[in-house]
Specification:
With 430 residues, this protein is of the alpha+beta class. It contains 13 helices and nine strands. It has three domains: 1-140, Orthogonal Bundle (Butyryl-Coa Dehydrogenase, subunit A, domain 1); 143-256, Beta Barrel (Butyryl-CoA Dehydrogenase, subunit A, domain 2), CATH 2.40.110; 261-410, Butyryl-CoA Dehydrogenase, subunit A, domain 3 (Up-down Bundle), CATH 1.20.140. Helix 4 (87-97) packs across helix 8 (259-295) and helix 8 (259-295) runs antiparallel to helix 11. The protein is globular, with a radius of gyration of 23 Å.
């Protein structure tokens, strides 16, 4: 096992880090000023300028891994434009992107576009790719992913109630979705919608995924959902009603009953991308904490010299390093044995990374005192984002359940061992 980054890994990480420090970080004040002006749901000009600079430098669409045997392409003739970084290579890049909230968008590596592009790349027809993947790939439009619903526990995707019913040459969509991230952006033109197309089929074959234009008749954005008071504009998180929305039959992805399969293929990479960026967010918080502790005095000495802060900073470094190693292991396994075989590692990092970042950001807020809960240092918003990540792409409990079940299956007792157990061993009561 080699823990030293390869030349290629270092090359891409360093190029992205350099762009962020020279171009993105200096643009943060401009971004904040433009964001605060006028309508909340608008295109931020400085982001568009940075996108052009990043694209010119080849720092564009870095999230898409090379094709492998686990990819079930419907069409192979469409060439996706990007450097084709592996998951492991992208992990190091994404960590840098996670340091500044809008950095990912400058390089066309923002969720949910990344996941939607991968869905189209893996499962879309040539026509679907030309209509939607091409403009997404070029950064001309944005997209949304409509899965979660307000009336059911959507952590179990088989619960969803939105219907996708075939009528002649069209599908008719009815339902209500929420936490439709990205739907607030005026450039958001298409959504990947998950719903049920056959309630009589086997449990995991009832769902389908379909492409739906956001301007289709019957699509209504009912309200915006803030996150701990943050509107996350212009991205936003919307509740959307779908009433007799008609789309052509050609908008179906992969085929009826394949929605759960697509969801599994989409959410695995999406989960680890979030975790990669989370490590960058934790590093950013630790850096701010260390600088603040050394710049302020309390009770006659620099705050960092108080032993409690030495303990907290040391623990933060330990936690970041452990989490990074787990994330890199998961990414490496995805590259070598596929997403399915790496599902336990993906689940583990999805539980570990947001909780780790929350602890460090919380300590950083404490180190800043009242300033920590203001908007001045970005820590409050970072905390809100990471707390939300414990729910996004499946809550902690679902991933922990999956991890535990795999462990139980791995260590199931033999019949002979079962005979040696008593009722006390089994936790039985009399």
């Amino acid at each position: 096992m080699d823990f030293q980054p390869t030349e290629r890994q270092s090359h891409w990480r360093d190029r992205v880090r350099d762009f962020i420090e020279k171009e993105v970080r200096p643009a943060v004040p401009t971004y904040k000023a433009q964001d605060a002006e006028g309508d909340r749901w608008k295109v931020i000009p400085v982001v568009e300028e940075l996108k052009q600079k990043a694209k010119a430098k080849g720092l564009w669409n870095m999230f898409m891994p090379p094709r492998n045997d686990s990819h079930h392409h419907v069409d192979e003739s469409f060439e996706f434009e990007g450097p084709g970084l592996t998951n492991l290579e992208y992990a190091m890049v994404a960590e840098e992107l996670g340091r500044i909230g809008f950095a990912s968008e400058t390089m066309n590596c923002s969720a949910p576009d990344t996941g939607n592009m991968e869905v189209l790349h893996r499962y879309g027809t040539r026509e679907q790719k030309e209509e939607w993947l091409k403009p997404l790939m070029n950064g001309e439009i944005r997209s949304a992913f409509l899965m979660t619903e307000p009336q059911v526990a959507s952590s179990d995707a088989t619960n969803i109630e939105t219907s996708i019913i075939r009528e002649g040459d069209e599908y008719v969509i009815n339902g209500r979705k929420w936490w439709s991230s990205g739907a607030g952006d005026p450039r958001c033109k298409v959504a990947v919608v998950m719903g049920k197309s056959d309630t009589s089929a086997q449990r995991h074959q009832q769902q389908s995924m379909i492409l739906m234009p956001l301007d289709a008749e019957g699509v209504t954005i009912e309200r915006h959902l803030p996150v701990f008071g943050y509107d996350d504009a212009p991205h936003g998180h919307m509740e959307i009603s779908l009433k007799n929305v008609r789309v052509p039959a050609s908008a179906m992805l992969l085929g009826e009953g394949r929605g759960f399969e697509i969801a599994q293929g989409r959410l695995g990479p999406g989960r680890i991308h979030h975790c990669m960026r989370t490590i960058g967010a934790a590093e950013e918080a630790l850096e701010k904490m260390c600088k603040r502790l050394q710049a302020r005095e309390a009770f006659g000495k620099a705050i960092y010299k108080h032993s409690i802060w030495e303990q907290r900073v040391a623990q933060a470094r330990i936690d970041i390093e452990m989490t990074r190693l787990l994330c890199l292991k998961a990414a490496d396994m995805m590259d070598k044995v596929g997403n399915k075989a790496a599902k336990q590692e993906i689940a583990m990092i999805k539980v570990a990374a947001p909780s780790m970042a929350l602890r460090i950001i919380d300590d950083a807020i404490q180190a800043h005192g009242g300033a920590g809960v203001s908007d001045d240092f970005g820590l409050a918003q970072a905390y809100a984002q990471q707390r939300t990540l414990r729910l996004a792409d499946g809550p902690d409990e679902v991933h922990a359940r999956s991890i535990a079940r795999m462990e139980f299956a791995r260590h199931a007792p033999t019949e002979a061992e079962m005979e040696t157990y008593s009722s006390g061993d089994m936790g039985a009561t009399r």
